[in-house]
Amino acid sequence: QKLKWLMFFRVLFSTLLLGSTAILQLGRASSPFLTPLLLLYGLIGGIFVLSFIYSVLIYRARRLALFAYVQIAGDTLAVTLIIFLTGSFSSLFSFLYLVVIIYASMLIHRRGAMVMAVLSILQYGLMIDLEFYGLLTPYGLEKGLAIADFTAGQVLYKILAMIMACFAVAFLSGLLSEQARRTRRELSIMESHVKRVEKMAAVGEMAAGLAHEIKNPLASLRGAIQMLRDGLPKDDDNIMLMQIILREADRLNALVQDFLMFARPPAGRSQPVRLAGAVSEIVALFERDAGGEAGLVIDVRIPEDLWIEMDPAHLRQIVWNLLLNAGEAIDMDGAASGRIEISAWRQKPQRVVMSVSDNGRGMDAETLAGIFDPFFTTKPNGTGLGLSIVHRIIESYESWLDVESRPGEGARFLLGLKAAEAAAGAGDRPDRAMGA
User: Fold this and answer.
1) Residue 282 CB contacts under 8 Å (≥ 6 apart), including other chains
2) Dihedral over alpha carbons 41, 43, 47, 52 (to 10 degrees)
3) Block means of pLDDT (10 residues each) for the chain, length 436 residues?
4) Which of 390, 393, 392, 396 is nearest to 322 (CA)?
5) What 3-state class would DSSP assign to 343?
6) CB contact at 8 A, 307 and 420
7) How deeply is 316 buried, as exposed, middle or buried, from its count of CB atoms within 10 A (0-12, 13-18, 19+)?
8) Considering the entire predicted model, what is its pTM?
């Protein structure tokens, strides 16, 4: 889309240049068919032809970035010809190089702007040098100042001024372009986060009442089944049927509990938690209770001086869910040697980022789009509430959760957590860090 706008403004500029040249000459006694004018008309016509060719090729170009480089490099050459036809050293159009560099930074960013600055400087410097040494005679619509009237020092000064201007504009416009691109990316992430939060809030409000209505009759039903079991004859069929009913009732009760946790997470007591000690303890419990599969290795790389502000019970639930999710992804991938890596670093004075990555099967774009939605799951026995609950808890601490993944390349969950100062007298004991 930006290339289309560039082609439009290129045609518009050429039209204005042609019109202003014609009007200027009509108001004068000189002929509109002088050689410099004819060359300028030819250049403008060439720009129109190139714009038409660009408009055809843009729908067939596979590498748009390279296509943009070719177009903008051609624009620097066109600017050089315009300057040459309008007086070269005395031309008023040398500022067009800066315009080209500015829109280069918008399309091909900082590196592209620097490349175009170098091309502009090389062309301008070569043209002025050839003119100064008498090897090139410029055309001019006006009798401007001849380069012979200036000393070599003055000519060099003007070239150096152009060099500094081109590089300064390339650097500043490239910097602004990168900042704008980064801001757009952050706004896009925030927008998707807000939409996800709004959707979860709407579902949560509706689900909270429904879960409460299900929980009470379910408890009564389970109690009645237990009483019936005690009164029925002790044959194998009755025992098997009662066990099935109680097992499914327990499973349904666990689902309702998860649903309530998602709908209305309990408020936690925030306190400083030493992240390394807390995560190490959670990993040790996970390896003993849920992650003891052969070949699963969990590597924790967290600096000892990182502290976060969170309820230890909530931190345990978050990390446990992410470890369980990673372990199941590795199992489903059938990897001979599964690996989970947990690392953390301080991103800002008030922000700690923790990463949980695995070498499992990864996720496609469709799965990534719905991974935090309630009841969305790719697992045969999953409820689809684990990551939704993690997201709701993270949200309550004004933190963020994001995921990066590609099919066959594993997944990486990133958590932005609120940093905290070390608790006075907390020491290094894991039980203090977990609030046990």
Assistant:
1) 315, 316, 319, 320, 323, 434
2) 70
3) 75 73 58 64 76 76 81 86 79 84 85 90 89 74 56 84 89 86 79 70 64 69 75 72 78 69 66 92 84 71 91 89 84 63 88 90 81 68 70 81 86 90 54 40
4) 390
5) strand
6) yes
7) buried
8) 0.48
